[in-house]
Amino acid sequence: MKPLLQVERLSIQFGGLKAVDNVSFEIWPNEVFSLIGPNGAGKTTIFNMISGLYSPTSGFVTFEGEKISHLAPYEIARLGIARTFQNIELFEHATVMQNLLVGRHCHRHTNWLQDLFFTPATRRGELQFRRTVEEVIEFLDLQHYRDQMVAGLPYGVRKVVELGRALAMRPKLLLLDEPSSGLNVEETEEMGFWIEDIKHDLGITVLMVEHDMGLVSRVSDRVLALNQGEMLALGTSEEVQSHPDVVEAYLGGADEDLPPTPPPAEGGDGSSPPAGSSMSHAAPGLGRPGAGGES
Questions:
Q1: How far, in Å, CA of 93 to CA of 26, rounded?
Q2: pTM of structure
Q3: pLDDT, position 254
């Protein structure tokens, strides 16, 4: 088996600041791989280089054996790499359905003239896009919000909508930038269930930047710790959290600050949420697949 994504000696410099310095790692298919580190460690900068927003000063990124560092963001998206952002980037005055349809835009194969006259090819493509989006809405249990404007939705629901827009691209690799940012404890737990379902049910590989070490410990197969653009430690969550350099740089030098690995959810093996769990600010029906209506 070959890595899905390889980052080789990646570096980027902004003026006199070296934001990322000689970082290398690989991500295997159907793995959840997390980047951790304090603010300014270079985590989101690495995301931006993988997704084509930044061009590295040196080094390169390979996806499915093909170098992609020279490609534009839309070309990288077409290859099967989707991402979310720390600050939600949605069209607030569009519906949930319309926002998710935007996620299919990179796979459009018709030109503007065909779209203008709504030719049979355009109609077929539109129907397929809508079928894909309806599947995502059902998977994320967003039926209740399908035709609602994003501007009127609670923050936790917007987070799920942004996740849905990325999933609508049918990605092979999903980049999640601070998925728990702005969420409360219950919403963060729910986000963890989505990430687990995305891996196990959809077979999508996940690369995640996250500050919540409880969430990182729960969903990650491997973790890379960064500080000031440099690699500190790579391994399982437990191995990385106990590494002396990580304790010093990321957790302030105190072992007692290390969060414990969260136990599995009550009454199961960790694959199902506790009864009644849902995004706390969401209306009834928002929850994991199969959990709708039990909130």
A1: 39
A2: 0.79
A3: 44
